[in-house]
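Problem statement: downstream parser choked on a complex file, so we are re-checking the raw output for the zinc ion run. The parser issue turned out to be on our end (a line-ending mismatch), but while we're here, posting the original submission so the record is complete.
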Amino acid sequence: MRNLDSTRRNSFDFHKLIVDSKKTTRIDPDYKTRLLAIEDEMETLYNVYQINFDRNILETTVANVYPDNSKDDLLKLYNYKSKLIQTLKSEITTTNTQRIINTCQNCTLSEINSFDHILPKEEFSEFVVNPLNLFPSCTICNSYKGRFWQENGRRLYLNLYLDKLPDSQYLFVDIDYNNDTFGLRFYLENRSEINENLFTLIESHYSKLHLLERFSRNSDKVITPLQNKIRPYIHLLPMEKIIEMAIQTANLNRNVFGMNYWESILELALINNENFIQSLSH
Ligand SMILES: [Zn+2]
């Protein structure tokens, strides 16, 4: 899991671009006119969002109330497959070195195939195409999240544009290895004095998105390749050297994919497990 840089675009300009891209249809010839009529109101709301985003207090944002059908009109602005939304996605997920981050950072398990609306679009339709409110996500995370994003004024999910992830380890895994079968238990623990509020938010994020169970279910995609990576070297290098190399690789991956990247955390736990290492020799 790693932080992503939010877009450098002007948010409200993006809203206007989307409105502008809407074609007048015979079924609803006034759609664009209605959207343009509420543009000033939208600009004010976008300014409030920007202020709350800059201060990382989005949970204090109050949803706008619409006396007419504006809510439905706004909701229709968003279409994941539309060209502008896809362009925005590639801008956010392309790194400075032109690598594409195609994995959902909310879970680091599945492919990005949607945008999560940080403030849910049903409640905050005004921000349905606000680029600062759109976080690239997989549909599994998106569907777990649904409409519930806060409880008693506290956010339930990390905002990976704004909540700076700790650079210390908080994800751990216990391994019970017996006769080639693995029992794995991923868990979170605050061993390095991570800010209490941030750690609570991390716990909530992992729990609501079922990340610990999802890591366990995906563990074979780490265990088998690691076994196969090590086995060819067993008769070529001393075991200590092999272990040292495997640890270095896992730590290099953590630099790129995040300090608490579950695959690296699992690899390190396996490498440090005597039963696992012994099993490689036969
Ligand atoms: Zn995901």
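For whoever reads this later: The longest strand covers residues 171-178.
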